[in-house]
Design the sequence.
C-alpha cells in the first residue's frame, strides 16, 4: 500500500533553517509528482510546493517562494523540503502528498503522509 | 486567485441524516474539484476527486456533484465514523472547512 512518511520537523528560531524529508513506498515514485501541503489552526490547509515526477520543474506558493526549495531523490524514493529564513507564520504541520495522476500536476492529493510539525519560535 | 467558500462552516446532525456541504468558487472552474475528510490528529483523506468521482475504498454514501461555480458534497445516511471536518479544494486553494458534529 502507498505510504508517505515525513520527518525532520522540530523547533527552530526565526531566520533559521530546517530540512523536511518524505520517504515514499508502495508506488512507482518516479512516475508521480509530489506536493508539500501545510496546515495551521488559523490559516487552515495551504499548498506549499510541487515537484514534477522527474524533478525537472518545481512550483511554489508565493508565501514561500525564494525561501523554500523542494527536491527529490528518485533513487531513494524520497522527497525533501529545504526551508530557509523561517518565520513564525511558517509554523505548521507539513504534509507530503502524492499527486493522483502520473506525470501530471493536477492538485489531486491522492495520498498523504501523517505530517511533521514545524514550530518557528525564539 | 480563485477563492473557495464553503458552507456551512459547521453543522450538527444525527446518525442516519443526509448531509449536504456546499463549495462556491469565485470563478467558474473546469478542472479537479476535490473533497477531503479530516479527523482530529490525522491527515486529510480524499473522498471525491474531479467533482464526482468516488475515491477507491470510500463508501458509496459519499457523493459529489456540481459545475461552474457551485459544488456539493452529499453524505447519505450519516454514520458515526463520518463525524469529521470536510474540505473542498481546487488547484492550490482549499476551502475553510465544514465541521460535522453529532447532534
Sequence:
Amino acid at each position: 500500500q502507498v505510504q508517505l512518511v515525513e520527518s525532520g520537523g522540530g523547533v527552530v528560531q526565526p531566520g533559521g533553517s530546517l530540512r523536511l524529508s518524505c520517504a515514499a513506498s508502495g508506488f512507482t515514485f518516479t512516475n508521480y509528482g509530489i506536493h508539500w501541503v501545510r496546515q495551521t489552526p488559523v490559516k487552515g490547509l495551504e499548498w506549499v510546493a510541487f515537484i514534477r515526477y522527474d524533478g525537472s520543474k518545481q512550483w511554489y506558493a508565493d508565501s514561500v517562494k525564494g525561501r523554500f526549495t523542494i527536491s527529490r531523490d528518485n533513487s531513494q524514493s524520497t522527497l525533501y523540503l529545504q526551508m530557509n529564513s523561517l518565520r513564525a507564520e511558517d509554523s505548521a504541520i507539513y504534509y507530503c502528498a502524492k499527486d493522483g495522476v502520473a506525470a501530471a500536476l493536477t492538485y489531486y492529493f491522492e495520498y498523504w503522509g501523517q505530517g511533521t510539525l514545524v514550530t518557528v519560535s525564539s | 486567485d480563485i477563492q473557495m467558500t464553503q458552507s456551512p462552516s459547521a453543522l450538527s446532525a444525527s446518525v442516519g441524516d443526509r448531509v449536504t456541504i456546499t463549495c462556491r468558487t469565485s470563478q467558474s472552474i473546469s478542472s479537479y474539484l476535490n473533497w477531503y475528510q479530516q479527523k482530529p490528529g490525522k491527515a486529510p483523506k480524499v473522498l471525491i476527486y474531479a467533482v464526482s468521482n468516488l475515491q477507491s475504498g470510500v463508501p458509496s454514501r459519499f457523493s459529489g456533484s456540481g459545475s461552474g461555480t457551485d459544488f456539493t458534497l452529499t453524505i447519505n445516511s450519516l454514520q458515526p465514523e463520518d463525524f469529521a471536518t470536510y474540505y473542498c479544494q481546487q488547484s492550490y486553494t482549499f476551502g475553510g472547512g465544514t465541521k460535522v458534529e453529532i447532534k
Notes: The two ends of chain A are 40 Å apart (CA to CA). The mean pLDDT of chain A is 96.
